[in-house]
Design brief:
- The protein is mainly beta.
- It is about 5% helix and about 45% strand.
C-alpha cells in the first residue's frame, strides 16, 4: 500500500497565466520495523492539467465527441488519460510531465516531488452554470506493474482577467522592480509580477467613480431617481445604490433589487431557437418605502461567484434587477396634530390598486486577487489517495 498526497502550494485559486505549483508525496505507511519484503514498487507516475467541459443536453446542442473511447481502463494499460471516466469533453490540457519511473519505497519511507505548470491564458474560467460547466483539475496518474492506473484528481479554480496575456514583461531584469533582500527564482518573480499586474489592472478598472443618475418612471409618471457611483466591480465588493423618491410624483410602496447573472447560450449552440437565458440571483434587497424620501441598498458580490466572461458556447453577464410596486392613487402622508390631548390611531388601507414594473441595469464584474478568493473556496488545497 502506498499513500499519495498532493498539496497545492498557494491555495486552490489561480489566475490564467499564473504558475501552478504542487508538492506530491509518495509514502509507504508501514512501520520502519517491518521486513524489507514489505517494500512497495511503483512503475511510474505522471501529472497533467486539464479543463473539462460539460453541457446540459436539454439546453445545449454540441457536435459529438470521441472522448468516450477512453472511459474504459484496461487491466494493464499504461496510457495516461487524465480525464478518463469524466463527463463531457476535455477542451484544454497541458503536456503531461513524468514524475518518476521505477520508484521503490521501503517501510516508513517517503519521496517528495514538485510539479509546476503555467496555466494557459486562452482557456475559459472555472464555471458551474445551469447549462454548461468548465472544471479544472490537476490529475496525477500512478501505476503498479501489471495493475490498472490509479488517478488522483486535484480540483482548482481559475479566474480569467482579460488583458494579462497582452502584457509583455521587460527582458532586462535590472530595470524591473525587485526586492534586493529576497532571493527568488525566475518563475516565482514572473508569477509574483503577474499577480501584482492583475491587482493594478483591477484597481484601475474598479476605482473610477462617477455618479450615474437614472429617472425611474412608469406610464403614469415619475416614481423617483436612482443613483449609483460606478458600474464596474470586483468579486468581493459591495454594489451600493441610492433612491430619491422625494422627486417622484407616483407613490412607491415597495421596491426590490436583485444581483443577478444571465447565462446565455450562443445561437448556433441553442437546443431550441430563441430559448431564454438562465438567470441566477446572488443577493437581494427588499424594502417598503411608502412616505420614504430617500433609501439605499448594499449588495455583496460573493467571492465564490464567476466574473463575467464569453466563450464560443456561452456568455455570462451581470445585472441589477429592479422591481417596483407603485400606487395608482395618491397617498396622503399622516401629520402629527399640534394638540396631543387626543389619541389618534393610524391604520393602513385594506385594499389599494397598484402597478408593478421592473428594470434591468447591466453592470460589469471582474475577478479579484486569487489569494483572496482562496479563503472562501470550497476546494481543498490537499488531496490524497491510497493505491
Amino acid at each position: 500500500m502506498i499513500e499519495v498526497l498532493a498539496q497545492l502550494s498557494r491555495g486552490p485559486v489561480f489566475l490564467a497565466g499564473e504558475m501552478l505549483e504542487c508538492v506530491i508525496i509518495f509514502t509507504n505507511p508501514l512501520s520502519a520495523a517491518s521486513t524489507s519484503a514489505s517494500s512497495e514498487m511503483l512503475a511510474w507516475a505522471s501529472a497533467q492539467i486539464h479543463c473539462q467541459f460539460h453541457a446540459s443536453e436539454n439546453r445545449v446542442a454540441l457536435p459529438p465527441s470521441d472522448d468516450s473511447k477512453h472511459d474504459v481502463q484496461a487491466e494493464n494499460e499504461t496510457v495516461f488519460v487524465p480525464n478518463r471516466g469524466e463527463r463531457g469533453q476535455c477542451i484544454l490540457s497541458t503536456p503531461p510531465k513524468i514524475l518518476f519511473c521505477d520508484l521503490r519505497l521501503d517501510p516508513g519511507e517517503s519521496k517528495t516531488y514538485s510539479y509546476s505548470e503555467m496555466l494557459p491564458v486562452d482557456g475559459p474560467p472555472s464555471f458551474r452554470g445551469q447549462a454548461v460547466k468548465y472544471v479544472y483539475k490537476l490529475t496525477i496518474g500512478c501505476q503498479r506493474v501489471n495493475s490498472p492506473i490509479k488517478l488522483l484528481r486535484v480540483p482548482f479554480r481559475v479566474l480569467v482577467l482579460h488583458g494579462l496575456k497582452d502584457y509583455q514583461f521587460p527582458q532586462d531584469e535590472a530595470v524591473a522592480p525587485s526586492n534586493p533582500f529576497l532571493e527568488e527564482e525566475e518563475g516565482t518573480k514572473k508569477d509574483s509580477r503577474l499577480a501584482d499586474l492583475a491587482t493594478e489592472l483591477l484597481m484601475a478598472a474598479t476605482s473610477r467613480r462617477s455618479l450615474h443618475l437614472y429617472n425611474i418612471s412608469n406610464t403614469r409618471g415619475k416614481v423617483g431617481r436612482f443613483g449609483i457611483f460606478k458600474t464596474v466591480y470586483k468579486i468581493g465588493e459591495d454594489v451600493v445604490g441610492t433612491f430619491n423618491f422625494a422627486e417622484g410624483d407616483i407613490p412607491c410602496l415597495q421596491y426590490s433589487v436583485s444581483l443577478q447573472t444571465e447565462e446565455g447560450i450562443r445561437e448556433e449552440f441553442q437546443r431550441r431557437r430563441g430559448q431564454p437565458v438562465s438567470c441566477g440571483t446572488h443577493a437581494r434587497h427588499q424594502e417598503s418605502c411608502l412616505h420614504t424620501g430617500r433609501s439605499s441598498f448594499s449588495l455583496p458580490i460573493p467571492l465564490s461567484c464567476t466574473p463575467g466572461f464569453t466563450t464560443a458556447v456561452v456568455s455570462l453577464k451581470w445585472r441589477l434587477h429592479f422591481e417596483f410596486v407603485t400606487s395608482r392613487e395618491s397617498v396622503e402622508a399622516h401629520t402629527v396634530p399640534k394638540n396631543q390631548s387626543e389619541t389618534i390611531t393610524w391604520t393602513g388601507v385594506e385594499q389599494m390598486e397598484v402597478d408593478t414594473f421592473s428594470w434591468d441595469l447591466p453592470i460589469k464584474v471582474l475577478p479579484t486577487n486569487p489569494i483572496l478568493a482562496s479563503y472562501v473556496s470550497h476546494f481543498s488545497s490537499t488531496n490524497s489517495i491510497t493505491i
